[in-house]
Structures are given as C-alpha cells and as structure tokens.
Specification:
Helix content is 54%, strand content 1%. By secondary structure, the protein is mainly α. Among the domains are: 89-237, no CATH class; 382-496, Ankyrin repeat-containing domain (Serine Threonine Protein Phosphatase 5, Tetratricopeptide repeat, Alpha Horseshoe), CATH 1.25.40; 514-618, no CATH class. The protein has a two-stranded antiparallel ribbon.
Length: 618
C-alpha cells in the first residue's frame, strides 16, 4: 500500500506487461544471441512508464531491479545519482571529521550529565562542580559551531549577491542555486535567533546554580568563530531540488524495494539524502511506517552452513535504540541548523503520534545483551519545544506512563518550552483537559503560575473562548485573577455573561483584590475609548453589554452590594463614576434604592436631576 502521506503519484496510465518483461530479462542475463535486441525491447517498454511507476515495479517485482536500475541510471539518467552536496572526496573527509566530533560531544554530554546527577545525589560538590563546568564547555563548543554555520550562511549570501550576480564572466548558476539563495536571509535570521535563545537558556541554568560555577556566556557577537567543515561554495554548486530514486521510494513507503536495493549493494540505509538528512529522519518526516520499522528492526544474516540446520543469526538493527536518541538528523556538512536532534523529536514535530510511542517502546525494551532498557530520561531526550508540543496532545495515561517508568515529568517543563509557558499553559491553549487532570493530580500547586507574558492558564483558556477548559481549570483549583476579569470585560469577542457566571459559581474565591464595580466600570470606559471604529453603533453595543454585566453583578449575585458605597482614591462612588463617564444606562442599576437597600447610610435614594448625557466622544 502506497503511503497516503506521500506526494501524489505520477502515473503514466499505460499498463506494463510484467510477464513479457520478465522473459526479456531472462534472455538478457542468459547472454542469448538476441540479448541486445531483447534489451532494446525492454527499454522501449519501460519508456512508457513514469518514474513513480518504475519505483512501484521495483518494490513489487524485486527480481527486475537490476534491469530497472540499469535502465534508469545508465541509459536515460532518470535517477540523477550524481547530484549530492558531498560529491568531492575532500568534502566527505571533512564531513566525517565533523560528524565524529559531534557524536563525541554528544556522548561526553551524556556522561557528564549522568556523572553530575550521581554527584548531586551523593553530596559530592567538587565532582558536581567539575561536571557542570564540563557541560558548560560542551555547550559553548556547540554554540561556536552554530556561529560558524551562521558565518558560512552570510558568506554564501554575499557571494551570491556580489561575485556571481555582478560578474558577467562567471557561468550563470542553475535555477536551483538561485532558489537556494532566496532562502538564505530567512535562514540567517532563524539561526541568529536560535543562537541567542540557546545562550539565554544556558545563562538561565547558570543563574540557577548556587553558587554559580561558571560565568555567563557572552552574546553571539563575542563568541569565537570556528572553521566551517564544508566550504559554502560547495553548497552552492551542489544544491538541487531533485530526488534520488530511493528518496522517492521512502516517500511512497516502498520498503520491499529498498530491502532489495540494500541486498544488492545499491542503497546504504545509514547514509544521507541529497539535502543532508539521514534516511531514518526522512522516513519519519514522511510518515513511512514500513520503512521506519525496517530501519529499527533486527536484521537477519545469510544462512550459515556451519550452524545446524543452516539457521540465520540476528544482526543489530541499522539504527539502534541509542541511535534514535543521540544520532543527529543532519550532517555537520550542511550549514543549516538541524530541525530536530533525534528521532523522537522528529515524530513530535511531524505530529506522528503512533510512531512516537512505537519508538519509545522500542527504546525502552530490554536490550538483547541483558544490560536492560536504555535510560531515556537521563539524556533529556526531548527539548523544551518538543515537550511543549507533546503537552498539547498527550493523554493523562500516557503522561503517567512517562513519569512512572522513565521519570520524565512533563509538568516540570521549563518556561521556554512550547508556547513560552509551562505545561498548564500549553494544555490550556490546546484544550487538552485530560492532560490537565494529570497535572492537577501531580503538580497542582503550579496551576496559577504565569508564562513569560505574565498570564495564567485560566487567562489563556478565557482568551481562546474555551469555556470547557476554563471550567476544568477552575475545577482543579485555578484562581481567578484580576487579569482574567479584565480580559473578559475588555474583549468584545468573549461572551462575558457565561464566563462571569462560571467565575462566580466558585463560592469563597477571592475573585479580585480591588473594589469590583469600580474596576468594571473603569475597564468598560477604557474599552470605549480604545475602539478603533468609534461609531454610535459600536458604542451602544458596548454600553448595552455593560448594562447587562452590571445587572448581573448587582442583582444576580449580590457580589457588588458591599462595594457600592466604596470610594476610590479620588473620592468617587460607583454611581458617581458612572455618571462622570457618561454611562447613563448603568445608573439605574447603580442607584441606591429607597428604603435603605444597598448604598447610602440615610436610606435616601440617589436621584439624578436629569438623565445623564452620554458623551459619544469618549
């Protein structure tokens, strides 16, 4: 079955006679006198097929792969195998050097983190300090490499704009190179922002140390530069938008054809695509389930005659569980910064939830060598952004599973994750009420924490007009702050009566720390002043809604009754403030009633000598 997530198939529409093609292939490989004629006839049959048709034939009829491969590569050049970023020996050597160092840095980071955790648990402050210093050093090295990539991007853009564009003697670059150059400014901006965010994150962690073990990192402009492993000119020369045949086969999830190509030595599953992405990451991005399961499953060696019965021996998978967590998804040779750090992060970023759990089970299973499951939590395998995305769709049962079995608690993600807030804010923005129930049970004390904008999770839910999520947050003990009330009163798109009714249903909750009606009326007046289209219709609509809110507060709940006689810092009562602001429609509900009900001590009603004149120029 063709992968439904792949780009549409390009079919020729002409049926191919497979039995006849098999007969011609047998004649060719047997060196019959008519082999040359049979090859021409076979090529003529294949000329009627599209590239996708040829790939489907390779997957379903693997015995014809040699014929199809020779036809596509040697005769017509359909496969375009010569297009690659790493087409020169020196570039390959530089890439291997950079990749080895990056993998070594990843292993050193893991070892330092585990050693630091052990030192902290045993109270060894000296060892803990040395481990923290080691981690900071590795992080600075990583930032240095990213800065060198940034410099290479700027060099590439400058080269395209000056040397190539203004020199008529140079050959005109292919259209793919110009298309690549157009993306450089955005990539430069994204990489610069990423470097700055990484520096901020490291400095925040340094600030949490008591006492600080190492000084804070300098800004990007002061980080020493490094040597880019691949010259930017090589990137420009070999940037193409064409597909390899096996890249398209991965898109279509044709695992049988890829297995056959691998057995024939025509495909290396551990290599990289023409754009520098490893094939596992490429398959994950295209939701090619069969290819992914083939890459991570154990392999079988050819039958061994020395073993009784000729049984096969098991070989390690092409990508081990450790590879899924530590292997980089892009080559160091590519100057673009990696989009993800490991296979799990790719599953989250591409929103492939079933495969995320399949990979997690694969990683967590006991190893064949008896060493037990790989400790995923020790690596912090998911960064803040991936953890934030995970909080938007994970269920309570799945979150409990991660916490109980791997000590990975999504409720403690740092504020930099996801939407800039903690798990509460991400779950509220995504209306993930099931996950909020898990958070209330495990980290309920953090429910009112503010994100980096200063807003609570209840504010996020109210801003999204999500009454169900707001009700769930209140059920879990969320506090109603003044910012939430102001949001409901000022935002014309939120139905205020429904939210206010929900808020006041919580008995005993201090919903505000300022006199209620003063804040209500002042905020409504500010809303009128802030209207961009100041028409009579808009003002009347806002004041009509204000009248309903005041009626609700005054008559329906009685919350405003003890507040009616309160004077603000200018000595104004609520009714005086309403008259002064021109909100005449509210006065009826704000006047103290005859008989001493609510308001003035002498019991005399407050009467207006004339109806307050509404000033629509507010």
């Amino acid at each position: 079955m063709v992968n439904p997530h792949a780009p549409p198939l390009q079919r020729s529409g002409a049926p191919l006679n497979i039995p006849s093609l098999r007969s011609l292939w047998r004649s060719i490989v047997s060196n019959s006198p008519t082999a040359a004629i049979d090859k021409s006839a076979a090529y003529a049959m294949l000329d009627t097929q599209s590239n996708d048709d040829l790939l489907l034939i390779m997957d379903r009829h693997t015995e014809l792969i040699p014929l199809l491969w020779e036809y596509g590569l040697a005769s017509t050049g359909r496969w375009q195998l010569g297009v690659s970023i790493l087409s020169r020996p020196l570039d390959m050597e530089a890439w291997h050097t950079g990749r080895a160092r990056r993998q070594g840095r990843s292993r050193e980071t893991v070892a330092a983190a585990l050693s630091g955790m052990y030192a902290r648990s045993t109270g060894d402050s000296v060892r803990e300090k040395s481990r923290v210093q080691k981690l900071r050093k590795l992080r600075v090295e990583e930032l240095t490499l990213r800065r060198s990539r940034l410099a290479a991007l700027r060099m590439a853009l400058s080269d395209m704009q000056t040397n190539v564009g203004n020199n008529p003697t140079l050959p005109v670059p292919p259209p793919e190179t110009w298309a690549y150059a157009q993306t450089l400014p955005a990539k430069i901006q994204r990489l610069s922002a990423d470097i700055q965010s990484q520096i901020t994150l490291v400095n925040n962690r340094i600030a949490d140390d008591e006492p600080p073990f190492v000084p804070a990192l300098p800004p990007p402009s002061q980080i020493p530069g490094g040597t880019n492993p691949i010259p930017h000119a090589c990137i420009l020369q070999h940037t193409k938008n064409t597909y390899f045949p096996y890249e398209r086969m991965i898109q279509l999830d044709l695992d049988e054809g890829l297995r056959a190509l691998t057995s024939l030595g025509l495909f290396d599953p551990t290599a990289f695509t023409h754009s520098g992405v490893n094939y596992l990451d490429y398959a994950l991005r295209h939701h090619s389930e069969n290819v992914v399961r083939w890459l991570i499953s154990p392999r079988s060696a050819p039958p061994n005659p020395s073993i009784a019965g000729g049984r096969t021996t098991a070989l390690p998978p092409l990508y081990t569980p450790q590879d899924l967590l530590t292997i980089d998804t892009r080559m160091d040779a590519v100057i673009d910064d990696p989009d993800a750090e490991n296979a799990l992060a790719t599953c989250i970023l591409s929103d492939w939830r079933p495969m995320f759990w399949a990979l997690w089970d694969h990683i967590s299973a006991p190893a064949p060598d008896g060493l037990g499951p790989f400790d995923a939590s020790a690596l912090n395998v998911l960064g803040p952004n991936e953890q934030g995305t995970l909080c938007s769709w994970i269920t309570a049962a799945q979150a409990e599973r991660l916490r109980a079995t791997h000590n990975l608690h999504l409720g403690t993600i740092p504020p930099q994750g996801g939407t800039g807030g903690r798990a509460w804010h991400v779950a509220a923005a995504a209306a993930n009420t099931d996950f909020m129930a898990f958070l209330a049970r495990t980290v309920g004390t953090d429910i009112d924490d503010a994100d980096f904008r200063g807003h609570s999770a209840l504010w996020v839910a109210s801003r999204a007009r999500d009454l169900g999520t707001a009700r769930a947050l209140l059920a879990h003990g969320a506090g109603i702050g003044v910012d939430v009330i102001k949001l409901v009163l000022k935002d014309l798109t939120i139905p205020p009566d429904v939210f206010l009714t929900l808020f006041f249903q919580r008995a005993g909750v201090n919903v505000a720390r300022q006199p209620w009606l003063h804040g209500v009326i002042q905020n409504l007046s500010d809303g009128i002043r802030g209207l961009t289209v100041r028409t009579r219709k808009d003002v009347n609509a806002l004041k009509s809604r204000a009248r309903r809110i005041i009626e609700f507060l005054y008559r329906g709940n009685g919350v405003a009754v003890p507040d009616a006689g309160f004077r603000d810092n200018q000595g104004r009562t609520v009714d005086r403030l309403a008259v002064q602001l021109g909100l005449a429609d509210m006065v009826y509900y704000l006047q103290p009633k005859a008989g001493g009900r609510n308001g003035r001590a002498d019991g005399a009603p407050y009467r207006l000598r004339r109806r307050a004149r509404v000033d629509y120029r507010l």
